[in-house]
From TrEMBL:
<protein>
    <recommendedName>
        <fullName>non-specific serine/threonine protein kinase</fullName>
        <ecNumber>2.7.11.1</ecNumber>
    </recommendedName>
</protein>
<keyword id="KW-0418">Kinase</keyword>
<feature type="region of interest" description="Disordered">
    <location>
        <begin position="391"/>
        <end position="424"/>
    </location>
</feature>
<dbReference type="InterPro" id="IPR044576">
    <property type="entry name" value="At4g25390-like"/>
</dbReference>
<keyword id="KW-1133">Transmembrane helix</keyword>
<keyword id="KW-0067">ATP-binding</keyword>
<dbReference type="InterPro" id="IPR011009">
    <property type="entry name" value="Kinase-like_dom_sf"/>
</dbReference>
<dbReference type="GO" id="GO:0005524">
    <property type="term" value="F:ATP binding"/>
</dbReference>
<dbReference type="InterPro" id="IPR017441">
    <property type="entry name" value="Protein_kinase_ATP_BS"/>
</dbReference>
<dbReference type="GO" id="GO:0004674">
    <property type="term" value="F:protein serine/threonine kinase activity"/>
</dbReference>
<keyword id="KW-0723">Serine/threonine-protein kinase</keyword>
<keyword id="KW-0547">Nucleotide-binding</keyword>
<feature type="region of interest" description="Disordered">
    <location>
        <begin position="639"/>
        <end position="662"/>
    </location>
</feature>
<keyword id="KW-0808">Transferase</keyword>
<keyword id="KW-0812">Transmembrane</keyword>
<dbReference type="InterPro" id="IPR008271">
    <property type="entry name" value="Ser/Thr_kinase_AS"/>
</dbReference>
<feature type="binding site">
    <location>
        <position position="126"/>
    </location>
    <ligand>
        <name>ATP</name>
    </ligand>
</feature>
Length: 662
């Protein structure tokens, strides 16, 4: 039995079946393996997902951002015929917008000279540094849409545009005008070439032809809206071209959608008011954006609608007509206010959206307060500062100290005392106003003028407004004495556009009193009174500005500038008033720049007369650009000064007829 026992002893315990052993081993290994890689896989998946998400976010953000900030309409068909330049190319061509290449600076950015290696033609590059400024972008689009379609030798060519990748820096590219602006060449650099009469006369004709093209050859006509010396550019031969179409408008027929018109008429009939819409004026950008049909409610497409309107009694009877002048300034503003802001309801048949759009426009235009008020403050401050420069020892105002030595009687002393006290109590900025006004009134009286024609108003009356003037005069007595003097500015000081050379380096220095806020309404001193007052924008606004420009060109000085002794300072300070006064006195040639060589007196008289006719307060009385070109080129008879300007009407000025034999 030993074998049995051996067997039984030596028999190893039964081995577990391989099939039963293997799985736990394999499972364990796999488990280890998976446990080892799972975090890596998870991490990888997470990273990949994050990466994809980041890419998608960046992509979406960039797309959205671009849509929001970039000039979306750069793709518009209107810009197709305008070349798109690479921004980097332009940056290189201007040496990264180096100050040494800077040609000038305007309200919305700087202009640089650019030399593109592949082109022999140097360029002028205007970069809008107003990222985020709605008006800057708006002007960019407007100019791009409009200027690119103009083709005239008297208009600066817009060659293309560029924008950086983000679309934040917008660039307009023009032909380079070697002698820069008229403002720069005539008033700042005083170029010798411009001291030749012929050059100045040619410039006047070039500008007139450019405006004639805009008003009479374009369909629809284009209203420039900002004619002034810094927007007249001079090439190497001092030939003038009109530039800067940022504020230009297309003059279109009534573009209001029918529904709005019907509603408006209904409202008018209900109110029993006489309300006639004469025209609507839109920017080129607006028309292209809206196709002339739809009503785009975005601020960028805001349509400036102007009305020759009598507002119904229900809306406070205020008449807004082209004749609205300075004295009606506040009324005009009120009217604009009403039409632009409230009329979203009144004129558009309770259309609030329209109202808000206009509201935006109005706010842009007027800033926080009344623009005219601030401009007036500004001018008053300016006058004050000018007077203080040479005050008070002069021939026309006796200073308080100078009176001390004069009298000896006690009566006189008492009187002096009273005056001194009065002087003391007077506000520092105001003491000179009354004295100046008194002195000027005395002078007028001495000249034998009717005392009822107080101040300067006598020379700027159009017959039509005489009746209105009488009414106004009544009101004027209750106004400050400086008001009538400011009225002599005939409204050209009622609004400002923005900071530009005219303000910064011109005759009107920057003052703490007023900032030239962005506005869509042209430039102080050049803007037509009816438009500055919030009224009608028409070709006649350009004609008015052309009138101021011609006076500046002939006189070689700024529209508001103080020279010489105090009394003459004030008579001459306002170029327009001075020109009118000279016309009345039959001394128009006194206005001509004394630095001019080889003056042709007839041509000079012709220019000044045309300018005065352009500066008539009533737009309908102003000449058309067609008339002006014909007169300047001798194709039409020279004009006569209107009766009210003329000392011995009707023909005071012995013009030689320039009319060519046809
Ligand atoms: N095509 C050009 N060639 C040469 N110089 C130019 C050109 N365009 C503009 N300039 C210069 O740049 C200056 C600034 O021009 P810009 O049109 O930006 O502003 P502005 O007309 O002076 O002022 P604002 O913006 O108030 O109208 C001009 O006064 C002119 O001297």
């Amino acid at each position: 039995m030993p074998s049995r026992s051996v067997f039984s002893v030596s028999l190893p315990p039964p081995l577990p079946m391989p099939s039963m052993m293997a799985p736990p081993v394999i499972h364990h290994r796999r488990h280890n393996h998976q446990a080892h890689f799972l975090p890596a896989i998870l991490a990888g998946t997470l990273v990949l997902t994050c990466f994809i998400l980041i890419i998608i976010t960046i992509f979406t953000y960039r797309k959205l951002y671009r849509n929001r900030t970039a000039p979306s309409d750069l793709k518009s068909p209107n810009h197709n015929h305008c070349r798109r330049f690479s921004y980097n190319l332009i940056r290189r061509a201007t040496a990264s917008f180096s100050p040494s290449n800077r040609l000038g600076h305007g309200g919305f950015g700087s202009v640089y000279k650019a030399v593109v290696p592949s082109s022999s033609q140097p360029l002028a590059v205007k970069i809008l540094d107003s990222s985020g400024s709605l008006q800057g972008e708006r002007e960019f689009h407007n100019e791009l849409s409009l200027a690119s379609s103009l083709d005239c030798p008297h208009i600066v060519s817009l060659l293309g545009f560029a924008s950086d990748r983000r679309g934040r820096r917008l660039v307009l590219i023009y032909e380079l005008m070697e002698n820069r602006s008229l403002q720069d060449a005539l008033l700042d650099r005083k170029c010798e070439e411009l001291m030749e009469w012929n050059k100045r006369f040619e410039i006047a004709i070039d500008i007139a032809k450019g405006l004639e093209y805009l008003h009479h050859s374009c369909e629809p006509p284009v209203i420039h809206g900002d004619i002034k010396p810094s927007n007249i550019l001079l090439d190497g031969d001092f030939k003038a071209k009109i530039g800067d179409f940022g504020l230009a408008r297309l003059k279109t027929e009534d573009l209001m959608i029918e529904g709005e018109c019907v509603k408006k008429r209904d409202v008018n009939e209900d109110n029993g008011s006489i309300l006639e819409e004469t025209e609507s004026v839109v920017t080129a950008y607006e028309e292209s954006a809206g196709g002339g049909n739809g009503v785009d409610r975005s601020p960028e497409s805001c349509v400036v609608r102007v009305f020759d309107a009598e507002v119904s009694p229900e809306t406070d009877t205020v008449t807004l007509s082209p004749e609205v002048g300075v004295d009606k300034g506040s009324a005009a503003e009120g009217c604009f206010d009403k039409i632009s802001v409230e009329s979203g309801k009144d004129l558009n048949g309770n259309c609030k959206k329209g109202g808000s759009r206009r509201d935006w426009w109005w706010k842009q235009d007027n800033g926080a307060g009344s623009e005219s008020g601030r401009v007036k403050d500004y001018v008053m401050e300016w006058i004050g500062s000018e007077i203080k420069k040479e005050r008070p020892k002069n021939e026309w105002v006796a200073s308080p100290s100078s009176t001390e030595n004069n009298g000896s009687s006690s009566k006189l002393e008492m009187k002096k005392d009273r005056i001194r006290k009065k002087e003391k109590n007077r506000k520092p900025r105001e003491w000179w106003k009354e004295e100046f006004c008194e002195e000027l009134t005395k002078k007028k009286k001495k000249r034998g003028l009717n005392s009822s024609n107080v101040g300067e108003m006598w020379w700027q009356k159009d017959e039509e407004v005489v009746v209105q003037e009488r009414k106004k005069r009544k009101n004027k007595t209750s106004r400050g004495s400086i008001d009538w003097w400011l009225d002599g500015f005939s409204g050209e000081l009622r609004t400002g556009r923005r900071s530009s050379q005219d303000w910064a380096s011109g005759d009107i220095p920057k003052s703490g009193g007023i900032s030239s806020t962005p506005s869509m309404r042209g430039t102080v001193c050049y803007i037509a009174p009816e438009y500055g007052g919030g009224g009608l924008l028409s070709e006649k606004c350009d004609v008015y500005s052309f009138g101021v420009l011609i006076l500046v060109l002939i006189s070689g000085r700024r529209p508001l500038q103080v020279t010489a002794s105090p009394m003459s300072e004030f008579e001459r300070a306002n170029l327009i008033s001075w020109a009118r006064q000279l016309a009345y006195n039959g001394k128009l040639l006194d206005l001509v720049d004394p630095s001019i060589h080889s003056l042709d007196k007839d041509q000079a008289l012709l220019c000044i007369t045309i300018a005065l006719l352009c500066l008539q307060r009533s737009p309908s009385k102003r000449l058309t650009m067609k008339d002006i070109v014909e007169m300047l080129t001798g194709e039409a008879e020279p004009p006569h000064l209107p009766f009210e300007f003329s000392p011995s009407p009707p023909s005071n000025f012995p013009f030689k007829s320039q009319k060519k034999a046809r």
